[in-house]
């Protein structure tokens, strides 16, 4: 288990996992650092950029090497528990002795929280400036109905077909189900033929991003809309497919074509 708190990444590009004895924070992804750490017993450059390096073993690296050589099970866990019985933190110098770890943690967390709020506000401001006429829902989705549609309203759980074209906020097309638009936007792939409307379940259980789940439910068959989707209703910090950057707001032109 964790310590009951988490803190964000503090990556310093000049600090590398380039030798044995590098001490780095263990985590389950960005922003999930806690109190666990690991010590390398070989260079591990593939870890650079993903883990906070904060120390280097100066004495006792042979102990780390011995731990790395114990018998392990298939899950890479040691057959017999390896227990760290004693840790001594030595502070050298006046600044180190005056340093308040608890206050530094609180200050750092507050700074990270403030930066996160500022970034979220900037995203909202960018969307509002680009699409002032859009209607905003409680979730943060913006939409502009171009045609409501004169067909039936699908029932929850039905499979519907949706034509779409997806853009970044700067107008860059990253995908489309319509070949003519894909060609014009430079994303056409002949291996994808025949281009067809996307099948998806209608309703909250659909296996699509949250902004789509909500946005498609605004339409009847034949309806068209523009959906402006902030990152937290899209692909978030992970991005997608190498074409959607992390924390990107997305714009989709969608049409509810039919019910299967």
How much helical structure, as a percent, in the residues? 10-25%
- Tell me what the CATH architecture of the domain at 133-259 is: Roll
Structural class: alpha+beta
Number of helices: 5
The fraction of residues in strands falls at: 15-25%
Q: Please summarize the sheet with the most strands.
A: 7 strands, antiparallel
Element-by-element helix/strand order: EEEHHHEEEEHEHEE
Please tell me the overall pLDDT.
Answer: 90
Task: Tell me the span between the first and last alpha carbons.
Answer: 46 Å
Low-confidence stretches: none
- What overall form do the CA principal axes indicate? elongated
CATH topology-level name of the domain at 133-259: Chitinase A, domain 3
Query: How many beta-strand elements?
Result: 10
- If you compute it from the alpha carbons, what radius of gyration comes out, rounded to the nearest whole angstrom? 25 Å
CATH class of the domain at 133-259: Alpha Beta
């Amino acid at each position: 288990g964790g310590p009951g708190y988490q803190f964000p990444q503090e990556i310093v590009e000049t600090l590398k996992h380039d030798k044995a004895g590098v001490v780095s924070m263990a985590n389950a992804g960005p922003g999930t650092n806690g109190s666990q750490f690991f010590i390398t017993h070989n260079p591990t450059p593939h870890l650079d950029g993903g883990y906070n390096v904060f120390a280097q073993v100066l004495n006792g690296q042979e102990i780390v090497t011995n731990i790395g050589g114990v018998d392990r099970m298939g899950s890479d866990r040691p057959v017999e528990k390896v227990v760290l019985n004693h840790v001594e933190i030595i502070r050298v110098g006046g600044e180190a002795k005056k340093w308040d770890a608890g206050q530094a943690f609180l200050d750092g967390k507050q700074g990270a929280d403030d930066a996160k709020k500022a970034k979220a506000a900037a995203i909202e401001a960018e969307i509002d400036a680009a699409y002032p006429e859009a209607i905003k829902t409680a979730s943060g989705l913006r939409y502009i109905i171009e045609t409501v549609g004169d067909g039936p309203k699908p029932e929850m759980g039905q499979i519907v077909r949706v034509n779409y074209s997806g853009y970044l906020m700067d107008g860059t097309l990253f995908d489309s189900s319509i070949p003519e638009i894909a060609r014009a936007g430079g994303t056409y792939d002949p291996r994808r033929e025949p281009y067809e409307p996307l099948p998806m379940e209608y309703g909250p259980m659909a296996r699509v991003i949250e902004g789509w789940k909500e946005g498609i439910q605004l339409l009847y068959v034949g309806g068209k809309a523009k959906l402006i989707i902030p990152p937290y209703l899209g692909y978030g910090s992970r991005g997608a497919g190498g074409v959607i950057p992390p924390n990107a707001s997305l714009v989709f032109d969608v049409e509810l074509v039919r019910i299967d």
